[in-house]
Amino acid sequence: MESLLLPLLSLLFIFFFLQFPSPALTQDGYFISCGSDGNATVDDGRVFAGDYKSSYLSGDGDNALKDTSNSNSNSLYHTARVFTRTSSYKFPINSSRTHVVRLHFFPFISHGYNLSSAVFDVSVSGDFLFRNFTADTNKNVTLKEYFLKVKTTKLEISFTPTWKSSFAFVNAVEVFPAPDNLISDTAQLVGPTGTQHYNGLFEKVLETIHRINVGGPKITDSNLWRSWIPDEQFLVLPQAAKPATRNAPIINWGIVTRDIAPENVYNTAQQMNRDNNSLSQNFNISWGFGVSSDSKYLVRLHFCDIVSEQLDELYFHVYIGDSFAIRDFHFHDYVFDLAAPYYADFVADPDNLSQIKIGVGPSEKTTLSKQNAILNGVEIMKIIGSGVSRKNPRKLSIGVLVGAVVGVSAFSLLLVVVSVLVFKCWRKTTAKPRSEESVSWLPVSVHERSSRTTLTERTNGSDRPNKYLGLKMSLTDLRLATENFHETSLIGSGGFGNVYRGVLQDGTIVAVKRGKPESRQGLSEFVAEITVFSQIRHRHLVSLIGYCEEQSEMILVYEFMENGTLKRHLYGSNLPSLSWKQRIQICIDSARGLHYLHTGSAKGIIHRDVKTANILLDKNYSAKVADFGLSKPILSLDQSHITTVVKGTFGYLDPEYYKRRQLTEKSDVYSFGVVLLEVLCARPAIDVSLPRDQVNIAEWALESLKKGLLEQIIDRRLVGQINPISLRKFMETVQRCLSEYGADRPTIGDVLWNLEYVLQLQDIPVHREAYEDSAVSAVGPPLPDVRRVPSRSVQLESDDPSSNGNGSSETTASGVFSQLFGSDGR
């Protein structure tokens, strides 16, 4: 027996040695430069080993790409490994502990592969990290970071193309152990009724979504090579916050270590801005972080009292969403020194919101003069699935090992036979199998099948059960129209999914918006779009031509607009500049569409996501309002508001709606006021690259107006084009639209009337005098007595498709449309 075992053990040793050579890598981990035949050294000093002929790589690993013309300075992104079928990196793991997995994606074009067109899934030891991934088409690096507790002796990262004609790629892979105290198994679940214990985080995979250095600059943590970014872009009301900084080292770390967060995170913070007299006495500091609504999230908050003179003087409340995370937070309850760090872990459920809101505010336990609240850092991690495989390896005797080898061989043979029989039976019983292309999008999960209803099911039993049938289109026709959703047909992407240019069989050019299977907007917005479009028709609203919901698809088909979004013509592209009169006319067209939504449609509809990315231009630069996935109907004429969860786009959100969750038509008016400023200034509503006082366009413009500095914010390309009297009336309209309270804002009909007056004033000859300037608050000559002709669109316009009036659509299904170029989706 021993004579047989020795050769067997030798073979097993050779097998494992060849499969898993000792890593020639440092830092007790694996750092792989994919597609490279040499090492790559990054800025922080780490060396990434090339995977050329690597034993860690299995499957289709022959396609190594190199781009010598790559503009990215990091050599990691000059090479990539491409997979045309399921392939893996398999790493031996020596310790049962939490590991960090990072995947780097940077698209380039080389040897016939355009990496931005890849669509694929990635899993770790059988559990999906993400599906249907596509790289950033703007050639930005996408870094995916995960924390997972590994209890096996091997970690396998698999890449699978989504469909047969697609492929997968990766530029770099990192796998290394995390400090033992970095992730805990428990946290506090926050809900409306209070907090309760949440256990089992070790059984999950955590994906980093946000890592924020509150009140401080961007920093890189040398312990785990983590980046912490500033918080300005996430502040709901920037004037409510005031940065605080401490320039001394932390002496007493207590239970916190530098592995949790670097010292620089705890030495900066945001505190309540008591210097701003325009705020109420008991205001909060709030941050909004974008997330998907289909998962729970681990929220880690970092605190360090760097603002108090004594340890026991600061009390404040901590909120997640609308719920208390901590009441009367008091540092003395957790630490024993001033400027000693502390952190707390919570689990939050967005509850169908597309954001997690975090706030800190004053406690009633302190006097008004000493009330304050602070926050130093935020980490938000998505909680994914059940985690990696939890099979614990056991120590086996030699006899058991030999039996296992023989048993596995016999079982494998049996499995092959059974598989062949099952496959034959399946071929016989399967009627009309789908094409390879049609199975590329994975079906809805078992849970989703039980909770999701199709549009057809939703309309069953209604008074008009067949009202949508005329809009239904087949998936086959849409595949033909878009060349099977080929990358050459792709014209844009958004939160709902990708948008393709298509040509129907009758020659009609259309825009086909294909929902992602895991889109955060999902079925509710798909249904909302179709429901709204069944009630409206107007020449300044984009027309819906059809929809498709076959095979778990969610596809919307619109008329095609050749000139794309208003946003692209204002900034972010090299398109010719629009003249001032063109811009005003586009605003007038958009206001007409919104006015029809508010007053001319069946019940009245609030758009809820008015922005330049949702205003589209046809070949004649006539504007149409698009994207009704967030729209809400007004239920009755005497209804003052709709109480609903807050949805929309930061920078355009009505502050009153955000605070009270009361949606009105005036919420659209506020958003449209921001659009008017974008038209004037040709810059985004939120631009975090600018100085802090210029980040928010509404705050910046109104403050400039107050100081008489309006000419400094106007688009330089409009210099000399704008009649000062026209500009003054334009800014009066903007000011009213951006009023803090909805009751002080005009109706969209009044805005339309004013804009038509602005256009008339543009043609009035004006002699500039010394006392005139472009600030509307300046004293100047009175506006000329121009008779303002009421807009035809202020009348209730027909929604009857057969109507030939100004309000009815003159565009048929052969009209034209374009959606969201770049990443303009919610």
Which helices and strands, and how do they pair?
Layout (H helix, E strand, L loop, with lengths): L1 H18 L10 E4 L6 E2 L5 E4 L6 E2 L4 E4 L12 E5 L3 E6 L4 E9 L3 E2 L2 E2 L5 E5 L2 E7 L8 E9 L3 E8 L6 E3 L1 E6 L8 E6 L2 E6 L5 E9 L5 E3 L4 E5 L10 E5 L17 H4 L1 E5 L12 E6 L6 E7 L11 E6 L2 E8 L11 E7 L6 E8 L11 E2 L1 E8 L13 H32 L16 H6 L3 H5 L15 H7 L8 E4 L3 E7 L5 E7 L6 H12 L10 E5 L6 E5 L6 H5 L9 H21 L4 E2 L8 E3 L5 E3 L6 E2 L8 E2 L11 H6 L1 E2 L1 H17 L15 H10 L17 H14 L10 H15 L64
Parallel strand pairs: 1-3, 17-28, 19-21
Antiparallel strand pairs: 1-16, 2-3, 4-7, 5-6, 6-15, 7-14, 8-13, 8-16, 9-10, 11-12, 11-14, 13-19, 17-18, 19-31, 20-21, 22-23, 23-30, 24-29, 25-28, 25-31, 26-27, 26-29, 32-33, 33-34, 34-36, 35-36, 37-40, 38-39, 41-42
Helix pairs in contact: 9-11, 9-14, 11-13, 13-14
What would you note in describing this structure?
It is a single chain. The chain has about 850 residues and is α+β, with helices and mostly antiparallel strands. The protein folds into four domains: about 25-175, Sandwich (Jelly Rolls); about 185-385, Jelly Rolls (Sandwich); about 455-560, Phosphorylase Kinase, domain 1 (2-Layer Sandwich), CATH 3.30.200; about 565-795, Transferase(Phosphotransferase), domain 1 (Orthogonal Bundle), CATH 1.10.510. The strands form ten sheets. Strands 1, 2, 3, 8, 13, 16, 17, 18, 19, 20, 21, 25, 28 and 31 form a 14-stranded mixed sheet that branches. The protein has a five-stranded antiparallel sheet with strand order 4-7-14-11-12, with no helix packed on it. Strands 32-33-34-36-35 form a five-stranded antiparallel sheet, with helices on both faces. Helix 9 packs antiparallel against helix 11 (about 665-680), helix 11 packs antiparallel against helix 13 and helix 13 (about 725-735) runs antiparallel to helix 14. The protein is globular, with a radius of gyration of 30 Å. The N and C termini lie far apart (about 70 Å).
